[in-house]
Structure formats: C-alpha cells, structure tokens
C-alpha cells in the first residue's frame, strides 16, 4: 500500500499545505497523528484500534492516566487531547471524539470542532506536521463526501502554525471524496 504523499498536494496560503495520502495512518512519519477515538480513550475499532495496537501499551497507559485525572467521564465529542505516540513513528497522538452521524440532527459543528481542536492541540505541542483520518466517516456513519467537505473547509479556515496537514485515507472511496474537495 502506498503511504507516500502523491501529487495531491495543495499549497494554501495562509495555512497548512494539504496533502492526500492513500494508506495506513499508523505508518505516517509526522509530528502528530490524530486518532478518531471513542470517548473512553481506551481503544476500539477502526483507526482507534489500529493506533492503540501499533502505539502499544504506552498509548493505553497515557489514556488511562487521562481517564483517571481530567477525563473521568471520557473525552467529550468535538474535543481533543494529546498523549505519547508510543511505538508509532509520530511523536504524539491527538485523540478526538467525532460525532455519530444522525440524519435528523445536524452535528456538523461537532465534526468541525474535532479538526479545530486537534489543530489547537497540535499548536500547543509545537507540531508542524499532522496526519488526520476521515473523522466520523467509518463506524460513526458520517457520509464520506460530507465528512471530506467539513474536514477540508475546517482545516483551511482554522488559524494554525501547522505547516502540513495530511489526510490519510484508507481506501479509494475516501481518497476520491477528499480529492474532490481540493481545487
């Protein structure tokens, strides 16, 4: 599977360069990898499970510490928090909890908040390169085209010192949905 950035690099001024990557987010050599976490922070399926498996016990231990201190009831939807990346090739994992899609309830502001809050945390860490998955577009059921629209628009509109945002997309359908959002 190709995990190197391809020709879908879009310089955006001001703001980070947007890059699309077809591949595995756990293989990205970046400052911070964003985890599409569940509120428990203790691992799960999809991206969350992959990050916890590859990151190893250090990521889980850091998440347990967060649960024992600041987030006893779990991380709220739309918020973000950082931990070590453990055995991942990144320095940090930024965990964010995306909303579940509901056709009769517009939760797009919460989804946008995941990207804004993750960039805020990245800035606090001093991260210059950040890899995002398609938050909420997996098991949480968000339609991929709409998830891509919200992700790209939010990253473009959010002031940040991050220099490069990679959208790491696992399959062709996700990649094409994000590519459609770039000029």
Automatic annotation (TrEMBL):
* SUPFAM superfamilies reported for this sequence: Macro domain-like
Keyword ATP-binding listed: no
E.C. designation(s): 3.1.1.106
Keywords assigned? Hydrolase
Pfam families listed in its UniProt record: Macro
> What region holds the Macro domain?
5-183
Q: Which domain of life is it from?
A: Bacteria
Recorded GO terms, molecular function?
O-acetyl-ADP-ribose deacetylase activity
Q: Which InterPro entries does UniProt cross-reference here?
A: Macro_dom, Macro_dom-like
| The keyword Hydrolase is assigned to this record | yes
User: Could you say which enzyme class this protein belongs to?
Assistant: hydrolase
- Provide the protein name: O-acetyl-ADP-ribose deacetylase
Q: Which organism is it from?
A: Streptomyces ramulosus
Organism classification, top ranks? Bacteria, Bacillati, Actinomycetota, Actinomycetes, Kitasatosporales
């Amino acid at each position: 599977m190709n995990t190197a950035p391809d020709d879908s690099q879009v310089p955006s001024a001001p703001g980070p360069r947007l890059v699309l990557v077809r591949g595995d987010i756990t293989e990205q050599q970046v400052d911070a990898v964003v985890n599409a976490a569940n509120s428990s922070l203790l691992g799960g399926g999809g991206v969350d499970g992959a990050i916890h498996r590859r990151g190893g016990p250090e990521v889980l231990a850091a998440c347990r510490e967060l649960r024992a201190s600041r987030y006893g009831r779990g991380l709220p939807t739309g918020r973000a928090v950082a931990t070590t990346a453990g055995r991942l090739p990144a320095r940090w994992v930024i965990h964010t909890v995306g909303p579940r899609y509901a056709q009769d309830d517009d939760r797009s502001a919460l989804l946008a908040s995941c990207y804004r809050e993750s960039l805020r945390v990245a800035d606090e860490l001093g991260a210059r390169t950040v890899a995002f998955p398609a938050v909420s577009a997996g098991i949480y059921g968000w339609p991929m085209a709409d998830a891509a629209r919200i992700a790209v628009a939010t990253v473009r509109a959010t002031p940040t010192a991050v220099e490069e945002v990679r959208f790491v997309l696992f399959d062709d359908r996700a990649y094409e949905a994000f590519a459609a959002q770039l000029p």
